[in-house]
Amino acid sequence: MVVGIIALLIGILIPTAQAVRHRSFVTQCAAHLQQLGQATRMYVLENGSLPRTRYEPGMQIVAGTGAGVADPFAADGPRANDITAAIHLLRKAQRLQTDLFVCPFSDSDMAVAETVDARLQSNFSDYRRNLGYSFATPYFESSRPVRVTRLLGASFVLAADINPGFAGLGDNAALPTIESRGRELRMANSVNHNKDGQNVLFGDGHVEWTSTAFTGPLDDNIYTNRRGETWAGPVDDLDAVLLPTDD
């Protein structure tokens, strides 16, 4: 009888403790994004645009190039339209601590903060390990400027938990539609929180927990552009596409 009661209590307490732990990690993750948001807002106000390195309209978005070069704009530095180099430029310009870029509740035991001095490189050493968040792609398909007031608006999505991409089990950022339900809808959720949802940072600095990736300015998928493409630039000022993916 006593053993049965103890087993029952354990069965109740363990899930409760896990839920409390998860909520704590979600809160810590949101705090990371809020600090990254403050830094991004400062960069935008000082420079008039989102951070970005070399830009060539119409070219493919890439990631992880040119890490060993100190100057992010050097010819032998990051390739044009490198999204992680743009994020690293934010780290360098705002002198940010590297642990801010790692979600406390990442599903990967391999997630670690960057250790190399920002002054010595132009990109993360291994963005798949050093980045737990995806950021608004500053490499638009056309070269027209985006208004600063737009970037800092309450509906503009600046960053969120890492884009799930396509490679992981149950991951497909582009498959669901806004009408999807259940398991299919979860396929577009970040892996950082067991596919339950993601923290999303908006241009005015506030962070929201969302259970679906369809939380862009027009309720579009924040992990693809409006054509359903991931490794591509936004098609217009109202489009939201956060990169890199975790593939």
Write up what this structure looks like:
- The chain is of the alpha+beta class and 247 residues long.
- It has one domain (37-243).
- Helix content is 29%, strand content 8%.
- It is built from five helices and five strands, in the order H-H-H-E-H-E-H-E-E-E.
- It has helices spanning 2-47, 83-94, 127-130, 148-151, 182-186, and strands spanning 133-136, 157-161, 198-202, 207-210, 242-243.
- It is globular and about 70 Å long.
- The N and C termini lie far apart (50 Å).
Q: Work out the number of β strands.
A: 5
Number of domains: 1
- As an assembly, this protein is single chain
- What is the end-to-end distance? 50 Å
| Major sheet size, sense and barrel closure | 5 strands, antiparallel
Helix content: 25-40%
Describe the global form: globular
Mean pLDDT: 87
Counting H and I runs of at least 4 residues, what is the number of helices? 5
What is the rounded Rg?
19 Å
Output the structural class.
alpha+beta
Q: Taking strands numbered 1, 2, ... along the chain, how are they ordered across the largest sheet?
A: 4-3-2-1-5
Order of helices and strands: HHHEHEHEEE
Indicate the proportion of strand residues.
Answer: 5-15%
Low-confidence stretches: none
Characteristics of this structure?
single chain, 247 residues, alpha+beta, five-stranded antiparallel sheet, 5 helices
